[in-house]
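Treating backbone geometry as a discrete language has practical consequences that deserve illustration. Part of our work consisted of pairing the sequence of a single chain with a tokenised description of its backbone. We regard such an encoding as a compact summary of how the chain folds. The amino acid sequence and the backbone structure tokens for this protein are reproduced below.
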Amino acid sequence: MKKILLGLISRIILGFFYTAVALLSAITQRRGRKYNKSIKTIAVVGTFHNPNWFHAHITPLTMASERVVLICDEPVTELPGLVYACPPALLSKLCSRALAKFIWGIWVGFKYKPDLYMGYHIFPAALTALALARIFNRPACYQCTAGPLELEGGGWAAENRILVALGGASPWVERRVNAAVREFDLVVVRGSGAQNYVRGIGYKGDLEIITGSVDVPEHSVGYQKREADLIFVGRLTEYKRPDRLFDVIGLVAKRIPNLAVHIVGDGPDQQTLVQQAERLGITDNIRFLGQRSDVQQLLGSARVFMLTSRWEGLSIAMMEAMVAGAVPVVADVGDLKDFVKSGDNGYVVEPDDIATYAAHVESILGSAEGWSEMSDKARELATLRSSREAIATRWRGAFDALKS
């Protein structure tokens, strides 16, 4: 009964806000009109708990514009051209974090006069950005970071408690979120699959594929100098399906008893994974490293990067692994195969095919020469397409298109 009630409340909340903001946008008739000024100041609405994720997205924006005003819960780190606009903690407590950001966004509109409003994830950040953009008669950008997962069935499978409360796909909410998406002037996705999906829901505006960015290390060490055979970086939650990863490790360890695995990150599933490792007899093969500030160095000391998620947009951790020379073996989800070409610079595997994951890991680790060839190709492609400067250049082009 409680789940049914929560699902009903969630549908009402989401339906109201999606419809209200879409109507606001339609009334102002801003959508589709070119902006007659250069995009110099950007107001960005989002939540940034992970420093790597922050740098992947915000750093190239600061390189592509004169000023970024970040409306978020708290400062992360200082960057040239970055201004923080964090709502007071009391305001967030009194009226919720999302509403506090909207209120603070109005203050940002008057103080900084942004040329563009941008939000990460459709609810609530991108929806907030769209409302602010229409109030101040500016273009709005939606960063679809998780791909179709944010929109399908109303977004019920995304990691947001109000969306999760839907309890399952809601065609009614999906129609309303799609209507809201169609009001944005610019939608940015991470890969071709998400691009096709957004066009498929009737979006007619500017649509760009712009990934997160990575900091490219100057050097990549060879096979023999890497201390970890396999590395995982991410939250230990069902969303990432680390249980699949541990099943793979169990199979590979039967052939390679001294297999060395690094698990970087933490989360609610960690204790369950410890127990799974004990059952599989692989406790000695695994090191739980927790949250780390030296992720790039750890990736550069591993031979294979694995990702067994049930869904991804385009993983920043995977791109960081590739520029560090780790060969990716990843699930065929989201847009990961836009970067990983099976048999060339890594492998893409059907999500539940544990045996094939294991076979590919074994083949990569079994040949230092083969590993080196794949490692070089992975590093080359990821550097070309996702370095900080490459992504900043893509953003400059997207901004120019808004006023051309």
Summary: The domain at 223-386 is CATH 3.40.50.2000 (Rossmann fold).
